[in-house]
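Summary for the steering committee. One of the milestones for this cycle was to obtain a three-dimensional model of the protein with C3B bound, which we needed before selecting residues for the alanine scan. The sequence and ligand used are listed below.
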Amino acid sequence: MNDTAKPTAEQQRTRTGLDKDALKRAYLDNLFYLRGRFLEVATTNDLYMAAAYTVRDRMLARWIKSAQTYKDTNARTVCYLSAEFLLGPHLLNNLVNLGITDTARAAGEELELDFEAIVEAEEEPGLGNGGLGRLAACYMDSLATLQIPAIGYGIRYEFGIFDQVIVDGWQSERGDTWLKSGNPWEIPRPKLSFPVGFGGHTEQYTDEHGALRMRWLPSMVVNGMAYDTPIMGYGVGNVNLLRLWKSEAPESFDFQAFNVGDYYGAVHAKMEAETISKVLYPNDEPEAGKALRLKQQYFFVSCSLQDMIRLELNNAGTLAHFHEKFAVQLNDTHPSLAVAELMRLLMDEYLMDWTRAWEITRNACHFTNHTLLPEALETWSVHLFERLLPRHLQIIYEINRRFLDEVRVHFFADEARVARMSIIDESFGRRIRMAHLAAVGSKAVNGVAALHTDLLKSTVMHDFYEMWPEKFHNVTNGVTPRRFIAVSNPRLARLITEACGDDRWLRDLACLKQLEEQAEDHGLQAQWRQVKTAAKQDLANWLGERTGFTPDPQTLFDVQAKRIHEYKRQHLSLLHIVWLYEQIKQNPNVELTPRTFIFGGKAAPGYFMAKLIIKLVNAVGEVINNDPQVSGMLRVVFMPDFNVKNGQRLYPAADLSEQISMAGKEASGTGNMKFSMNGALTIGTLDGANVEIRDEVGHDNFFLFGLTAPEVHQRQAEGYRPWEVYHGNEQLKSAVDLIASGLFSHGDTELFRPLTDNLIHSDPFLVLADFQAYVDCQRQVDRAYRAPHHWDRMSILNTARMGKFSSDRSIQDYAERIWGVAPVPIEA
Ligand code: C3B
């Protein structure tokens, strides 16, 4: 290659070709030149790293071409701002999206490598808590696949979500060290960094045109440095950008402090700056330590907006059309400071007037709400804002003043409504309501499933909906079939491709409809069942190694995997299990379908009740699994450390998917979609996206039970008395009493009291109210599973009718109805 030229096509072909020989050569090269190893002495991590670099090399030319084309065509770009991106392992996903999994496997075989072990060696980046973070990752996959120019912006946490280990039945948290062995997928950009201020004060000054302006003099400045990860579309040339920010001190040593002898003070400042991107906050944590969380939010929002401004100034030379260039999506309220920060940047740094800056801001931003749980609706004390972000507080006050004047005119002289809608909550101390800020500063607001959006419009955002009905949209969530079928369930993917005649379904999930005609076909049913059984065997082996207990794949695998939370009601399932146990003990000949109940999920470290539920799962499992009298009938196992990687083992293996939240509480759910795509039937309430899943798959192919959202509301309004339910239902009472009796706690009658007392006396999520309906519905499941052809047919129909729940459909909805963006195709 001469000094200036890009690699020639021929050089690129041999360097980054997709054929087997090119892969083999590149692999050995990478092992040698990047890891300093040859095959005989390489560790598993070396082997994995070489594989990762080999794959990444094959994405780079497309990545650069995508960026260049997007720039040249000045394409409208989606900027997805999210505090969480729960990506899951990259290697296999990128192989699938590049379309070279089989070739890579064959290359590996010729080099006598253990392909599966190499894939297993990848430590996933756990930069999210659960549904919200994983949704962001699915959306990145779909944006690239649909060839829509997009940048994901977030935080490069040094420690992601904790690793969960089970010690004596209890959850114990271990620090997540995903960066320990290096991250081959990211490219650090030391020169791409932005200053972010905190604290200090503001002052007024007169600019050269005589206009009064504000400036902010922060007392502390940190730098945000970019780390870029390519996000590969499936079967296309488009590779989009995920840009995560790491916080750093502007200089590693404050030389002034150093010179006066304060070496430790200087190092301390550096540490303080680095703290900002140190760790992901687990959900549901109490207030303490939250100042850091606000700092994280402001930090990544500011870096991201400064980066967009840089791009726009490079390209257009002016910010007048910023909102035409970028569609900024705020993933929940975590990035909602973007509204105030964009205003500040435009006015204070780029000297725009209020009206123009507001016009741009309001047209650039869009807001997704992901929950109605009151404790998750973010507010920050005005106090904290004064201390950390004094300029933003001023801007928020001014946004609010103007907004409330509009409210007064719109709802003529309705001061109660003004107080309800105000961005500042004056009721208990003064707090900033971040959802209100986001709604006021955005062009569109959306919920994540039809029911959730309806509830959003009729409850927490009702006033806003009445004022701006046209602003509100529903975009039902979706998940990517690439990761959640092709990557996690290759056997099923092969069978579907065979049955459909081609693999177009991977790009257009509605194609799965073709399977419907064959749902009764006993040949397909037999293959379908084989695929399921093989996945169950894989999971059983894995669980055997990790937990010492190997479930029997011939039993019905009944799975509940999601964050542990009272509203999700893992304890409802536990009551059913305990009830079943009693049935068998009382009558060993009772007719039941043998089942294995599998639970998985993390509890927030500070959430006592959730941790007690994990302990109860394990305690019940210990007794039941060691009772020979129920051995062929009933098993309970807790899968430790549920994350994306372990989820991929679970979804293919489930016969039954538990989606049993109290109606009105689960905004959408996305696990429900992953299970159903993989042929699991759902037992569920009319909550979140369950409603739409049931409508799609057909009411006969879904096990529905429980109170509806309006019924829940009514029950609570009437004054719900759980102790009456408890005393009125003999079977329920004996299940609760058995837990309290000490049978599952070596005689300790206190251990589970907080849980049983809470159910009997308060039961905020109506577990007892739904118990009987749930047990009855589970009986129907039992019967259905004993009719294999019937079950297989339902299972095939579930997969066949999941087209709507591809994240490609969700992104299509956003693109058309909210963002107004078009594809910019890059050829593969
Ligand atoms: C979750 C909700 O709990 C799910 O119902 C929903 O499917 C996903 O978001 C994605 O929309 N959620 C979350 O994981 N974290 C929050 N802070 C709020 C909602």
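Key point for the committee: The pocket of C3B is lined by residues 129-132, 135, 283, 332, 370-371, 376, 448, 477, 666-670, 688 (CB under 6 Å).
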